[in-house]
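Can't paste images in this forum, so I'm doing it all in text. The chain is below; anyone willing to post the predicted structure tokens underneath?
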Amino acid sequence: MFMLATIPPAIRLFPSVGARYGGAAGWLAPVVGVIAPLVIVVILHALFKRGNFADLHDAFRASVGGFLAKVLLTAYLVWTFALFLLYVRYYAERMTASLFTSVNLDFFIIAMLLLVFFAARAKVAALARFSEISILIFAVVLAVFAISLLPTLRLGNVMPVTHYDIAPVIRSSYPIVSVWGFITLFFFLKIDNTKDIKKHGVKTALILAGATMVMLFLVVGSLGPNVAARMPRPFFQVSRLIDIMQSFDRFEAVLSSILVIADFILITAFVFIMMNIIKKLFGLREAKFLAGPIVMLGYAGSLGLAASTFELERVSNSPAMHAVNLALCLAVPAVVLAVGKVRRRV
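Text version of the structure:
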């Protein structure tokens, strides 16, 4: 689920930010960015290693006590809800911008949230199994996309890379670090096998880094760093360069349609995470009934989140947004682990 959930923000954000701050070397940003999920995986592995915890809340409660654990859970709930609103709105904005320019945002938001409502009333295991199938579809489509872009690739757009590019690459990795920090939120879902956190987490992080590097290399290499940095959606713009076969003339529409699956998984995962957090906060026996209120709040909140796409971009790409995400997804687990070690609770 986490791998698919990172696809929408990665496609929207990484190419333009990588080109803007990293220039021709921006495709190397995932080399730096992968450090964050690797560190998070190590921290989470250490938190879960000694205790028989079902989720991150149990680890927090053992480390810092029940009261502070609830305070932290409240912060995570607010932040997850903000991300939920953000990505519901981004999904609708992308659909109206790329496929159905004459259709109102409300239609896409209502359609998505209805699907999310029914999915959230099932078990999270069903969403996980659906994600396993969907990742294969994405792998095939993105492989075709990558191969089809090879004729448009210009190595001069991404080469040469020297030691002078180290600072720009580090700067361009900041949004990547932030998005990949989402992995922490997924540990508020019930974890069946905590012993394999490190093994599977490291594997996932390395696959993400490799796939993202290839995507950035092809997008920036085909468009050039200056053009990619100025485009609002370089990933979709570069798809228009594909002209190997007549059937690829509308490849952008194919990509947008398939991305709806990733949007659905990301948004539904956020709903499951919020339901589990609320369940722990209030000691509820069942959380399925929360799907309705969350979806209704999501509809109203996503429409009122921003007046335009430009305002939405300005808010979501602000340093404050990335800083809060890093604080909650990286710094807080590290501090909780340190406190738990001192108290010998984890």
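Residues 2-342 form a domain with the Amino acid/polyamine transporter I fold (CATH 1.20.1740.10). The mean pLDDT is 87.
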